[in-house]
Amino acid sequence: MAFGSGHATVEEMAQMLKVTPTQLAQLRYKGGGPPFLRLGRQIRYPLDKFDAWEKDSILVRTDTRLIQAER
pTM here? Predict the structure, then answer.
């Protein structure tokens, strides 16, 4: 994984989320997935934005989101 660059490729992000690159493309299209950059025809996922997205996606129940006091 290209952690030194601070960005993950589609394949790397799919591996991290344990989904296929096709499922990740659907998340980009429909929304709800991790934030991404489009650099020409290339897609990159900023790892610092991924960490924040992951923390904001934590659920305590299916109908509510966890509100963290500290961020």
Answer: 0.74
